[in-house]
Amino acid sequence: SAKEHGKAGYCFYQPRMSEQARDRLLLSAELREALQREELVVHYQPKVALDTRRVVGLEALVRWPHAERGLLLPTHFVPLAESSGLIAQLGRVVLRQVARQLALWRARGLPLVPVAINVSLQEIQDGQFVTGLLGTLREFGLHPSLIEFEITESAAMKNAEHTLRQLRQLEAQGFRMAIDDFGTGFSSLSQLRQLPTQTIKIDQSFVQGAERNPADRDITEAIIALARKLRLGTVAEGIETEAQAAWLREAGCGTGQGFLFVPPLPASQVPALLLAERTPASSIP
Ligand code: C2E
Ligand code: MG
Ligand code: MG
Ligand code: MG
Questions:
Q1: pTM of the full predicted structure?
Q2: Rounded to an integer, what distance in angstroms lies between the CA atom of residue 232 and that of residue 254?
Q3: Is 220 in the pocket of ligand 1 (CB under 6 A)?
Q4: Which residues touch 48 (CB under 8 Å, ≥6 apart)?
Q5: Cβ 259 under 6 angstroms from ligand 1
Q6: In this structure, how many other beta carbons lie within 10 angstroms of the beta carbon of residue 195?
Q7: CA 200 to ligand 3 center in whole angstroms
Q8: Is the ipTM of this structure higher than 0.90?
Q9: Which of 81, 208, 210, 269 has the highest CB neighbour count under 10 A?
Q10: How far, rounded to the nearest angstrom, does the alpha carbon of residue 173 sit from its chain's CA centroid?
Q11: What angle do helix axes 242-251 and 214-229 make, rounded to 10 degrees?
Q12: pLDDT in the model for residue 5
């Protein structure tokens, strides 16, 4: 402790800590303002059918264009939003942007695909979540089947009873659901059976580890087999090489996402992808 290290240690350590705390406080105050002004932006990453390479869905990924710090990625502010009571508002801002965007694309006559929104446990557990969600979709004239929710496994498993009730309500309304980062949370196969989900997203650590680590490869193949048995779809995350794409396709994984195909892009670049016969990034070997 600081006491054991004497006065010098205490003096050295304390200012650093408070500087970090000040920085967090400043950032959360700035985030609050950015949310009020709806300054956050949503980028979209396609989900691609591994056999045809057509875009079959999009994932909404939030970014914060910060005046001094540049374009901030969610790891820099989503956990902060969760711990400072701002996550519900962040979720509403993201949902509104996605809904507005879908309505714009539809008005331009573009062929729409479902958009997946990442949600935190805290957002789903909020009693206003479903009501607010349905209100926004009604406002933009969108059907729930156009929206998918990605829920991280660890989140879905906590506070199981209440979460399950909320998720079943979403299912009854026609929303799709996927378990994100599958294999990294506190897995419980019995809860997987209970969850009203249609899709498992295989975490990118398995996809990327598979080349060097046979265990990652075996686990991934077992997840795909399990999903098949349960009649669930599979999306492999973080595909960066043709070798990974080919192996996953052979293993029976239907859909992929990753820098090999398309990285997350601003909304302005999405229409070209929706109109493409197949993603232009690379060809099937
Ligand atoms: P996620 O939902 O698992 O999203 C996948 C992450 O992997 C994204 O990072 C994406 O940019 C990145 N990625 C995609 N393809 C590749 C690839 O080929 N290689 C590598 N190395 N990475 C790839 P991003 O955008 O930084 O998002 C990080 C996490 O933040 C997301 O993980 C999600 O859990 C969370 N998040 C993003 N947007 C939101 C949001 O609107 N609300 C909430 N609550 N969480 C969000
Ligand atoms: Mg996700
Ligand atoms: Mg993921
Ligand atoms: Mg993740």
A1: 0.91
A2: 10
A3: no
A4: 54, 55, 56, 255, 256, 257, 261, 262, 279
A5: yes
A6: 22
A7: 10
A8: yes
A9: 81
A10: 21
A11: 40
A12: 46
